Amino acid sequence: MTSSPFDLSGTVALVTGAGRGLGRAIALELAAAGADVALGLRDPSNDGGLAAEIVALGRRVLALPMDVRNLEQSRAAIDRAVAELGRLDILVNNAGGGIGGAAIDVSEDDFDSVWSFNTRSTFFISQHAARHMRSVGSGAIVNIASQAGLVALPGESSYAISKAAVIHMTKALAVEWGEYGIRVNAVAPTFIETDGTSEALSDPAFRADTIERIAALHRIGAPREVSGAVVFLASPAASLITGATLAIDGGWTAR
């Protein structure tokens, strides 16, 4: 009997920003699919019970101090994951964020902060992970982009620009690293129900407008609707897919 193409048994994944929201859901989904998981956390001593949940699934887990804006710390976290878990097969660049505001008012410091958080970190963390993956001739990187990188969202210019760069970066790295057996893909979610979006979505007018703009399904997404797609792109089921960005947006960008 052949194994499922979605089976990640025997692999090691590292998820940045794993402490909450999408990162937490992705880490759990990867573990459920069979992967051992390294958790990139700002505070490894406060993971909200995530490590225990992964152990309960029968997987190895390693909590790592990893603020993605600190590249020295992030490279050390990757090296430690390889040293303690034996390899690195999957990297999920999930950590990120934005600072809202009208484009005409965005400050240089705010723009640089968003760029560092979302784009610079994704590039250099991917670069360091790829050096390990190259040595074994395989690997999968999945970047968490955003529908904001595909369409304009008023009041989110710096965030949208940074995520559009991540989408193009995904293509550029896929083309360069394919010869090493490394696949690079991205997902671009719409608004998902997480602690990070709860404040905005608690505004009835904003929520109603968002649901209307999710043009086909007209509902807010759930974390598992993103984490399942990440597992697919990281798995052998996606072995011929690289350089792609999968919109998980309920039809927002199809309008």
Notes on the protein architecture:
The chain has 255 residues and is an alpha/beta fold. The protein has one domain: 3-Layer(aba) Sandwich (Rossmann fold). It has helices at 21-32, 50-56, 71-85, 108-136, 157-177, 198-201, 204-213, 223-234, and strands at 12-15, 36-41, 61-65, 90-93, 139-144, 182-189, 245-248. Strands 3-2-1-4-5-6-7 form a 7-stranded parallel beta sheet, sandwiched between helices. Strand 1 (12-15), helix 1 (21-32) and strand 2 (36-41) form a beta-alpha-beta unit. It is globular and about 50 Å long. The mean pLDDT is 95.
Query: Which whole number gives the mean pLDDT?
Result: 95
By CATH reckoning, the class would read Alpha Beta
Indicate the low-confidence ranges by residue numbers. none
Report, as a whole number of angstroms, the end-to-end distance. 43 Å
Number of domains: 1
The CATH topology name reads Rossmann fold
Q: Order of strands across the widest beta sheet? A: 3-2-1-4-5-6-7
Let me know the CATH homologous superfamily: NAD(P)-binding Rossmann-like Domain
Helices and strands in order:
Layout: E1 12-15, H1 21-32, E2 36-41, H2 50-56, E3 61-65, H3 71-85, E4 90-93, H4 108-136, E5 139-144, H5 157-177, E6 182-189, H6 198-201, H7 204-213, H8 223-234, E7 245-248
Parallel strand pairs: 1-2, 1-4, 2-3, 4-5, 5-6, 6-7
Helix pairs in contact: 1-8, 3-4, 4-5
Keywords:
single chain, Rossmann fold, alpha/beta, 255 residues, 7-stranded parallel beta sheet, 15% strand, 8 helices, globular, 7 strands, 43% helix
What is this structure, in a nutshell?
With 255 residues, the chain is an alpha/beta fold. It contains 8 helices and 7 strands, in the order βαβαβαβαβαβαααβ.
